[in-house]
Amino acid sequence: MLRILVCVSGGGTNLQAVIDAIGDGRITNTEIAGVISNNKNAYALTRARQSGIEAICLSPKDFPDRAAFNRAFLDKVDSCLPDLIVLAGFLVTIPAAMIEKYRNRIINIHPSLIPSFCGVGFYGLKVHEAVLARGVKVTGATVHFVDEGTDTGPILLQKSVEVNEDDTPESLQRRVMEEAEWQLLPRAIDLIANGKVSVTDGKVRYK
Length: 207
Ligand code: GRF
What we know:
Helix content is about 35%, strand content about 25%. With about 210 residues, the protein is of the alpha/beta class. A 7-stranded mixed beta sheet has the order 3-2-1-4-5-6-7, covered by helices on one side. A two-stranded antiparallel ribbon has the order 8-9. 5-O-phosphono-beta-D-ribofuranosylamine binds next to α1, β5 and α6.
């Protein structure tokens, strides 16, 4: 059984997609060991608790400095004994010590086709605003492993979504979630849970 720890900051629709996919068998060999949010008001926490999953809030605001938060965060993560950490809309920078300790065992979902519209400052609606401002015709989502950079780790899965002429950032965000994110994240976890993925020279290969 792959034990996953899911880190969230917001609505938690990607968390819900994972919970649902475990429920209906699209993800096998996997259990959610816990959910961590940096935001005590995140609806994702409610979703987790409604599904009987232990969910806690750990906010940088409750610590004297970032180093103290990072230590507490890593302690909490370690105590869950995760095989895989899933960043599902988590807006906190992952401490370097955690990236090192959990190399190729942390995945993130990003709402664009990396390397477009990613990196520092590209999160949430800002991604979709930039897509529309540039006028690209195709966008999408990417699941990648997390390394020291921002959205630079090995790419696991990508799926494209067409941009419509009348899209708003909100309508595009919704479609990217429905057509790409909620399918990709469960698929990525299932691949990892079933030993179908390896990382060599910074690239993902399917077994
Ligand atoms: C998603 O668009 C995800 O790609 C991004 O943050 C958003 C989280 O949405 N990283 P939700 O909390 O899963 O609904």
